[in-house]
């Protein structure tokens, strides 16, 4: 079995802490714990920077060593669906950041924060 590409491995390992931060932020938001804002902000910023950074890397010619794909119908459909889901998650993450900020300033958009975080958590 060949070694996995370094960039993909780096991204996969780099996203592991995001899962723990998201879980902590979600639970701390439910219980009004102290570090909710910090872990939520860290989780979203870390996830967005890794995800968008990798997308930009691949978009502007960054190659993952040892990777070559022939785009067949099934793989193309997978990438289209994956791209749509990624865009939805990115929009949700920006929305959660905004509504969290709005909630801290007691603005009307803050009411959406709990609703959006549940969707994002799933």
Classify the secondary structure makeup into a structural class.
Answer: mainly alpha
Total number of β-strand segments? 0
Helix and strand run: HHHHH
Alpha plus pi helix count: 5
**Low-confidence runs of at least 5 consecutive residues:** none
Give the % helix: over 70%
Q: Mean pLDDT across all residues, rounded?
A: 83
Shape: elongated
- Gyration radius from CA atoms, angstroms: 17 Å
Question: How is the biggest beta sheet arranged?
Answer: none
Approximately how much beta-strand content do the residues carry? under 5%
The structural domain count equals 2
Distance N to C terminus? 33 Å
Explain what you see.
This protein has 122 residues and is mostly helical. It folds into two domains: 1-67; 69-122, no CATH class. 75% of the residues lie in helices and 0% in strands. It contains five helices and no strands. The protein has helices spanning 6-14, 16-31, 36-59, 73-104, 112-121. α2 packs antiparallel against α3 (36-59), α2 packs antiparallel against α5 and α3 packs antiparallel against α4. The longest helix has 32 residues, at 73-104. The relative contact order is 0.11.
Summarize the helices and strands and which ones pair or pack.
Layout: H1 6-14, H2 16-31, H3 36-59, H4 73-104, H5 112-121
